[in-house]
Structures are given as structure tokens and as C-alpha cells.
Specification:
Layout (H helix, E strand, L loop, with lengths): L3 E3 L6 E3 L1 H7 L17 H10 L7 E5 L5 H8 L3 E6 L2 H13 L6 E5 L12 E4 L3 H12 L6 E5 L10 E6 L9 E8 L6 E7 L4 E10 L2 E8 L2 E12 L2 E10 L2 E12 L2 E9 L4 E9 L1
Parallel strand pairs: 3-4, 3-6, 4-5, 6-7
Antiparallel strand pairs: 1-2, 7-9, 8-9, 10-11, 11-12, 13-14, 14-15, 15-16, 16-17
Bound molecules: S-adenosylmethionine.
Length: 287
């Protein structure tokens, strides 16, 4: 029997062809292409909430179907662009945007998402198959640091998500009645050796950073300090925060660096506290 794969939980739900035909338009999926299946509106809403979509955002939906994600983003004040292979869906989405009164902020283009320039996006949304997402990974990771990516029901290769929701969605047309929504924030590239000067607190600090996506392994040293441990590090887009505990000037300090990565520089603030005294310093680290 010719079985077809449907989008759904785990994205590998198998149904017979009759059941498949009953639920969605005729589509050839055996060639690896993705069929048109809508994201239920309550899931669309949670996807946009998770990405904190609002005025000022440019949302690009890859494979926009009937346009619902782009239209809902436009309702929330964002600009939206839907990219879709199927011209009849592009026309339907444009009509839906007109009917919703957001045609000035919601555009649709008939094109292959793999050839698209996504650089204008502050948010990218996807409801595709895991294999396609994995192919998209290099393109998504190369977006501007801080760009948010939200996917419905599929991961992006081996890139660990930043946040995840699991929702019970009884009216979902495919799968097991649940939707998984995951968020990634494109990380700045911070791998390498950084140094910064704080003459009044530790002298010359060096940070050695190894990076795998947003996950960092950091070693910290300072000329006027010793025994640093790094109990906390977080990179979200271009925002880096780093906690280092250790001895500076014979006192034990908790040093919290928070900074913004811009190319070869990180600028920010160090708050150092020994429990009695708190010191604050501006810093610039260079790679
Ligand atoms: C599962 S539907 C999702 C529709 C919509 N984003 C939503 O969540 O309701 C996937 C859509 O991607 C489109 N699609 C598949 N491959 C594509 C490609 N290479 N370029 C553009 N669109 C594509 C399909 O035509 C289909 O409409």
C-alpha cells in the first residue's frame, strides 16, 4: 500500500491514502515535498507570543499556505511576508489578508523558500518537515543575531531550542492531538579569545570562549585574580551574560558581566559584589 507521511507529532505519522485525501489537498509527498496543512489558530497565536511579535517586527513565514501566520502577525502590528511555492495558495493568502484588512502589512510571494533572501526578517516562522528544517539550518543560523525562529512540530537539525511549548490541540487536523512549538534565537558568533582591561578590578581579564550554537564553554582569567569559576553563562542573540566567581584583591567576588556583542567587540557592564560592597564598571572586550 502506498503510504504517505503527514505532518504531525514527530512528523512521521503514517496514514492510509484515503484518510490523507480526506484531510488535505492532493499533494505529492513521496518526493520529499511538504503538503499544505494549516497550523491551528490557537497554535499560531502561541507561536507569535513565544517570538514576542509586535510592531517593528518583520515576520517571514516559510511555506505560508493560506497566509494565516503572516496575517495574524500583521494584526499584531508587524510587517509580514509569506513565501509559498503554490501560486493558488499565494492568491488565496493575499485575498485573506485583504479580507482581514491587513493587506498593507501582509505580502505573499510565489517562490521557493530555499532561494529566498531572509535578511530582512526579525522573526522566521516554519511548519515544515524535519529534513527541510535541517537543510535550512545554515541559512537560519546566518541570520542577524537576535533573529527569532519559531517552528511548529519540527526541530532544526541538531540546533538546541531556547524555549519549547507543548499544547493539547484537539482540533488539529493531523498528528496526535498535540502541537510542539519551539523557539531559537540566532546567536552572535563569540568563539575565540577576548580580553578587557579593568585596572581597578582584576587588571587584564581574558575570556576563552568555545561555542556550539548558543551554548558556550567559557574559561576566565584575570592578572590580578585567581581561581575563577564560571557558574553561569548565557547567550541570547547578541546579549551575553557571564557570572564568574573568584578572588580579586584577596576578596571573594561574584562578577556578573552583561554585554552586547558587535562583531569583534563586546561592550557592557560588570557588577562585582563581595556580599558587602558592590562595584560597577563599564567594559569593552575585544577579540
Ligand atoms: C505545512 S504547510 C504550512 C502552512 C502555514 N505556514 C501554516 O503554518 O499554516 C507547508 C507549506 O509549505 C509550502 N512549501 C513546501 N515546500 C516549499 C518550498 N520549497 N518553498 C515554498 N513553499 C513551500 C507548501 O506548499 C505548504 O503550503
Amino acid at each position: 500500500m502506498n503510504r504517505r507521511r503527514l505532518l504531525g507529532a514527530g512528523l512521521a505519522v503514517l496514514l492510509g491514502p484515503a484518510a490523507a485525501r480526506a484531510q488535505m489537498p492532493a499533494y505529492t509527498w513521496d518526493d520529499g515535498s511538504v503538503p499544505f496543512v494549516v497550523t491551528p489558530m490557537e497554535v499560531v497565536s502561541r507561536m507569535l507570543q513565544l517570538a514576542e511579535v509586535g510592531p517593528g517586527d518583520t515576520v517571514i513565514d516559510l511555506g505560508s499556505g493560506d497566509g494565516r501566520i503572516v496575517i495574524e502577525a500583521a494584526r499584531r502590528g508587524a510587517r509580514g511576508l509569506g513565501l509559498e511555492l503554490d501560486k493558488s495558495l499565494v492568491a488565496a493568502a493575499a485575498e485573506n489578508a485583504r479580507a482581514a484588512g491587513v493587506a498593507d502589512r501582509a505580502r505573499f510571494e510565489a517562490m521557493d523558500l530555499f532561494t529566498a533572501d531572509l535578511s530582512a526578517a526579525t522573526v522566521v516562522t516554519i511548519y515544515l518537515l524535519p529534513e527541510l528544517n535541517a537543510k535550512l539550518l545554515p541559512k537560519l543560523l546566518a541570520l542577524r543575531p537576535g533573529t527569532r525562529i519559531v517552528s511548529h512540530d519540527a526541530g532544526i537539525g541538531d540546533w538546541p531550542f531556547d524555549e519549547r511549548l507543548e499544547l493539547r490541540v484537539p482540533d488539529k487536523p493531523v498528528g496526535d492531538g498535540f502541537s510542539r512549538v519551539e523557539l531559537w534565537v540566532v546567536p552572535a558568533r563569540v568563539a575565540g579569545n577576548w580580553s578587557l582591561e579593568l585596572p581597578e578590578h582584576g587588571g587584564r581579564w581574558t575570556l576563552r570562549i568555545a561555542q556550539r550554537y548558543q551554548l558556550l564553554d567559557v574559561e576566565v582569567a584575570a592578572t590580578g585574580g585567581r581561581d575563577f569559576v564560571v557558574p553561569g553563562v548565557r547567550l541570547r542573540g547578541a546579549e551575553l551574560s557571564l557570572v564568574t566567581n573568584g578572588i580579586v584583591g584577596r576578596r571573594a567576588w561574584r562578577n556578573v558581566f552583561t554585554g552586547t556583542v558587535q562583531g569583534e567587540r563586546i561592550t557592557g557592564e560588570l557588577r562585582a559584589s563581595d556580599g558587602n560592597e558592590t562595584r560597577t564598571f563599564a567594559f569593552t572586550a575585544v577579540r
